[in-house]
Each structure stands twice: as C-alpha cells, then as structure tokens.
Amino acid sequence: MRGNxxxxxxxxxDPAAFADRVTADGRFGRSAExxxxxLVINRACPWAHRTVIVRRLMGLEGAISLAVxxxxxxxxxxxxxxxxxxxxxxxxxxxxxxxxxALREAYLARDPGYDGGVSVPGLVDVTxxxxxxxxxxxxxxxxxxxxxxxxRKDAPDLYPEALREEIEExxxxxxRDLNNGVYRAGFAPDQARYDRAVAGVFARLDDLEARLxxxxxxxxxxxxxxxxxxxxxxxxxxxxxxxxFKCNIAKLTEYPALWAYARDLFQTPxxxxxxxxxxxxxxxxxxxxxxxxxxxxxxxxxxxxWLAPHGREGIGGSPxxxxxxxxxxxxxxxxxxxx
Length: 339
Hints:
Distance between the termini: 29 Å
Radius of gyration: 19 Å
C-alpha cells in the first residue's frame, strides 16, 4: 500500500519481487512442510487478508504459523515498512519466531542487494529466514490447492477445476475496477484520472449488484476464491474506501444484494472472524499522510450492521459445498469481536 508520498502519476502495482511456489510434491523446489513457513501479514491489508481467509478455510493454521505486523508502518530510510511491535504481540519489537523487526529483513536475507518495495503478505522460510514469496494471488491459489494432506480433511474446494476459467474471468474484472480501482481513485494524481477510476468502481459495483441478486455466490453454488477476492474489498469499503479514498457515490450498505452478500460472507467462519476493523481504520487513516496529513482516524462506521440477518439462504447454495466449516479460531489469532 502506498503511504506518505504525494501521488504524481496513477498507481501501478509492481510484479511480486519473489514468487517461489510451495507444493505438496515440491516440484518447484519448495515442499509443503508443517512448521517450515511463517505467513507475515497485516490485518489492514486486503491482499494479505485473502491469504488469512484461505489458510483458515483450508485448516492450515497448524501447518503455517501467523505473524501480524503493526497497522502503523514505520519509516525506515525514508520508506514505510511493515514492522513488529509490542502492541501486536511481539516482545521487544521482534517477531518471536523470525527474530526480525521489519519484514524487509526477510527480503534482504533472501537477496542482500534488494532495493524494491516491501509488501504483505510474505511467506517466510523459518529455517533460513528468507522470504519465499510475496505473490499474494499465487499464494492463495497454492494454499487452496497444493498443500495436500496438511489441509483439513473436510476443507472446501475453493478452486474447482470446472469453474476455474469463470473464477479468473470474474476475478480479473473485479480486480481491475474494484480491488485496484479504489486505490486508483484514492491515489489519483488529478481530477480526470480520479473521475475515470471512481466511475469504474461504481460501474463494477452495479454489475455485481445485478449478478448477486439472483445467486448466493459469485461463481457456482458454494464459496470460491472469487468470493474471497471480492470480500476483502467490500469489508473495507464503507470504513475506508468510501471516505478516505473518495469513493463516495454510494455506500456498500446502499446496495441491497451486495450488502446482504457481504454480511452472508462476514457471518461465515473464516471471513468475519479474520476481519480487524480497528486495524483497517488505523492503518489507512494514519499511514496515508499524502491524503490525510493530520492522521486523524475516523471513528465509524458502526460495525453492528455486519451482524444483521442477511436472508441469503433462500437463494440456494451452501458455503462449503461438500466440505464443512472450519473449527474455532486459534486463541492467539482471535480478532476483537463486534459488541
């Protein structure tokens, strides 16, 4: 995520700096092994949130440990960095497993000459301290399909072969106009590019409203990666994208089908129980000083609405298909509930 630099051109996302794949058979050089990898995330980041949801739905909490960075990035050598702090459970500001203060240390362990950006999520090899991958999309795909016997026996199929083409087609549209579109609007360097970006955001929301008026999930009859990719943007829409990123033509709560769909997902194990609204608000309003120089963090909106009945069961479909819901969130990974 961009932070304290005033935008002079439209936001562009660089390809993943490191993209090692981890699979059950090790065919790309890295094997899935319980305890070998640590997933470094920030709960504010929608791209990192995707990996946390997939990890939980697949039952990989015992195989891949989780490290949470502070929502307030620290400026190191002029750039904002994801760091570990006492407030997020890291004594002395060091991750208790990796022994690092900033995620960039894992990048530099992998490549001492690396001088690019640092993003979450990052999958770090605990045995070497090296970053294995920061490719959030490929990481989600592999967590959903490549961890074999380390996944729970009743895990859902989040990427069914018969639906993969449609999942990717829908995902590409959602990414272009919505997932990334809100950033293009929020960090637009001029009025014309803001106007184009925000128009795309709401055109896509309108299309999704129509699509989800007659179906419970985006693709097929149960949850897929398409829903996870959409949810992490929707759950941040009213708290930060509507006001902070000036995507204020309408609120999510003003879209009847989309709002009910989002609540349906939120109330499904793996979604709401991995959402940390305080971290989301604090990160966006505090870090992005180019568009919020006072660092005043907005107080709302009240999250109580996420618990209201959604009424989507009657549309058909079931969240986990032939699988089942995951068990309780591990005690050390629980996020504050809505009270």
